[in-house]
Amino acid sequence: MKAGAMRQRPDNAVADRKYRVAYLVTHPIQYQAPLLRLIAAQSDIDLTVFFQSDMSLNAYVDRGFGQTVKWDVPLVDGYRHEFLPGIGCHDTVSAQWPINWGFRNRLTRERFDALWVHGYARWVNWTAMLYAKARGLAVLIRDEATLFSADRSLVRRQAKRAFFSALSRVGDAFLAIGSANRDYYLSYGVPKQRIFSMPYCVDNEFFAKRAEGALESTNRLLSDLRIEAEQPVILYASKFETRKRPRDLLLAYEKLVAGWSSTLKPQLLFLGDGELRPTLEADVRGKGLSGVKFLGFRNQSELPKFYALCDVFVLPSSAEPWGLVVNEVMATGKPVVLSDQVGCACDLVRNGVNGFVFPMGDIDALAGALRRILCDRDNAARMGRASREIIAKWCFANDIEGLRLALRSAVG
Question: Whose CA is closest to 202, among 303, 57, 120, 312?
């Protein structure tokens, strides 16, 4: 029998099955909302989302950005959802908070086939998984961890292996967000037949269209920022915190412009905010780097105009589980330069094709990658087109198919 025919049999066998799925997650997340709307629209999946907190629906203090944030995109429209009762539901989410109750009754009442949880470290999630398992529901687990997302001693690795021995008995399917996440599960003994691809994606069309629409106002934005049209633009858009390593980019930029032959030197735009911003601004003033501009936090709908403006995007982080901002930038057709500790690097970046991956903390390598892209703006444009082609394959349709495969395997 041909392989294609073998794959078709389970599709036919469960074509008329409708899976009732409960999704448990901490709070409404701007990246997940479009995906949840699409899942809810599927004829074979009956989705109910249970939130432990509503903090992101209103203005809240984001500690990473160091300021109050209110998202300007719809977070809970288009899918059935419920906020669980509890203590601390309007505050910052942590491993311990909020303290919720009532989820067990909801699982029993609604007669779900499967529980899908985002994150396995919170005690509320563990309680939910154990109860679901006892009730005969399939348990699906999605998380962001990689082998480099945290420093782990030998003792911690051994403890983690013991933890996963228990987790593997509870979880029927593990939903991998990418290759590094899959490798993490495999390294701790999760059987490969229980790992299904549900990659981290964004609404590619949203960012592509917003960036295209912003092209008409690009010249005005350049004028406002006092940037010549011929000047290359480097973009950073993230929190100003230690693990994001924005200072690495600043040091690499200093090296880049020191050896730049043209009078029109590259410009570096920092979007975001956080605890390191005052130090970075002081460095810029002390070194007289006039081409560096700090533009503060920008909301989701504002970002595409800056993506359209730049020639290359940089994320120099350490211990970065994925980096969804990279998906966004690639959807607008830009090359990217990432450290090798950015989780999406091994999946989304092809060296010399749509960007470069450099060893985390290697300032010379980062400066060299920027030089190779910016010295030839036509090549940068070609690399940007390659980015758009690559990211087109990282889409919500793949997420839905991965979820279906996991449900078919776990529920039957």
Answer: 303
Amino acid identity of residue 259, one-letter, is: G
Q: Please check whether residue 375 is in contact with residue 381, taking contact to mean a CB–CB distance below 8 angstroms.
A: no
**What are the Cα distances from residue 273, in Å, to 236, 285, 298, 363, 395?**
11, 17, 9, 22, 29
Average the pLDDT over 61-74 and give the result.
69
Decide the pairing of beta strands 267-271 and 45-51: unpaired
- The secondary structure of 293-304 as a DSSP string is EEEE---TTTHH
pLDDT digits (tens, 9 = 90+) for 83-104: 999 998 887 788 788 888 899 9
How far is 330 from 348, CA to CA, in rounded Å?
Answer: 9
pTM of the predicted model as reported, rounded to 2 decimal places: 0.90
What is 3-201+395-411's CATH superfamily? Glycogen Phosphorylase B; (3.40.50.2000)
**% of the chain residues with pLDDT over 70:** 93
β 292-296/267-271 pair status: parallel
What is the C-alpha separation between 97 and 87, in angstroms, rounded?
8
> Which pLDDT value is given to residue 155?
78
- 230-275 pLDDT per residue, tens: 999 999 999 999 999 999 999 999 999 998 987 889 999 999 999 9
Domain boundaries, the chain: 3-201+395-411, 204-391
Asked if residue 230 lies in contact with residue 264, where contact means CB atoms within 8 angstroms, the answer is yes
Identify the architecture of domain 204-391 in CATH.
3-Layer(aba) Sandwich (3.40)
Cβ neighbours of residue 353 closer than 8 Å, sequence gap 6 or more:
383, 386
Q: What is the pLDDT of residues 174-183, one digit of tens each?
A: 999 999 999 9
